[in-house]
Design goal:
- Chains A, B: Its main location: cytoplasm.
- Chains A, B: It catalyses: XMP + diphosphate = xanthine + 5-phospho-alpha-D-ribose 1-diphosphate.
- 2 copies of one chain form a homodimer.
- Chain A is an alpha/beta fold.
- Helix content of chain A is 27%, strand content 31%.
- Chain A has 5 helices and 11 strands.
- Chains A and B meet through strand 3, helix 2, helix 3 and strand 5 of A and strand 3, helix 2, helix 3 and strand 5 of B.
Chain lengths: 198, 198
């Protein structure tokens, strides 16, 4: 997605060989034009999948998840990272380890909002080691629902999440795939056919 | 806003005389049709205010904040409830006490994204005791920016937040104003002119 890649090139800040900060347009301040485009693109990619629900995780997944849900005309559910006092229902949970924050969070979704009838599109802002993505898939599977695939805004292809999800047979659609952040430069994977064994 | 009131009546769950759970359409699962309407209505109410930025707080404020920002054609910034490892910038912060969770969180916004040139519309899902709203206003004022007003999805008018904000001269627009949750019934304030000393 060209608009997204341009934003990453122009405004992304490389903090290390593995950390890209995109808080001017994606996960602190949100660019409304870009976010609409992101929703449209995920909806286009999964338009034939008969999606009944979008699932994401707070907080940075909410914006792309919502825009996709609006385009598809289905509800979006966001998993919570800790239990809310007013979420005392029967919960579907999964443990998610964050390599960035070096901590494990339990993510949870009320059993009411993902059911065995659902075909779920999982959306997230980043795919790095894949732990959040796998946790969301685990929740969908615990509900007896089907994972239609993953829509990822920015995939850090040099980390293992993308390979992990694809090796489990999941469809992963990433709007920007980053091959490297080394030497302070963002290198995108411009053409998937060039990439062997991702 | 009739669609919102209908949703509250049909799907809201009253947990106590002060707690209304609306996680089927607002803050866990999100109804895309309702959320678009919410954004349109806030944009309409503040259309003459020359808003340059929408400010909200994670997580439940992001959806209404984003939809309003899209309608107004401006960026939305969401304050974080704890510091992120990749948000190491110069931060504008405020302390917010949650009566529901009985804990104090520091909310923070990067100084880069709210500046003295901004006229800021603050959006949140609930207004109860007004602590989060006041914290957001404090951040805007610390940036030297102007608060154009507050757009609140659900105001619990029987708690003190609404009176507190209005007494400070802030414009508060709430899409549903709840007068009482007693006896397991949601009583709306249907007409503001009927209400004395709110």
């Amino acid at each position: 997605m060209d608009l997204l890649k341009k934003k990453i090139r122009d405004e992304g800040v490389i903090l290390s060989n593995s950390v890209l900060k995109v808080d001017s347009f994606l996960n602190h301040q949100i660019d409304p034009v870009l976010m609409k485009e992101i929703g449209r693109e995920f909806a286009r990619l999964f338009q034939n999948e008969k999606i009944t629900k979008v699932l994401t995780v707070e907080s940075s997944g909410i914006a792309p998840g919502l825009m996709t849900a609006i385009q598809l005309g289905v509800p979006v559910v966001f998993a919570r990272k800790r239990k809310s006092l007013t979420l005392a229902d029967d919960l579907l949970t999964a443990s998610v380890y964050s390599f960035t924050k070096q901590e494990t969070n339990e993510i949870s979704v009320s059993r009411k909002y993902v059911t065995s009838d659902d075909k779920v599109l999982i959306i997230d802002d980043f795919l790095a080691n894949g732990q959040a993505a796998l946790g969301l898939a685990e929740i969908v599977q615990k509900a007896g629902a089907k994972v239609a695939g993953f829509g990822i805004v920015i995939e850090k292809s040099f980390q293992k999440g993308s390979e992990l999800l694809r090796s489990k047979g999941f469809r992963v659609e990433s709007l920007a795939r980053i091959d490297s952040l080394e030497d302070g430069l963002v290198q995108f994977i411009e053409n998937e056919s060039e990439v062997v064994n991702v």
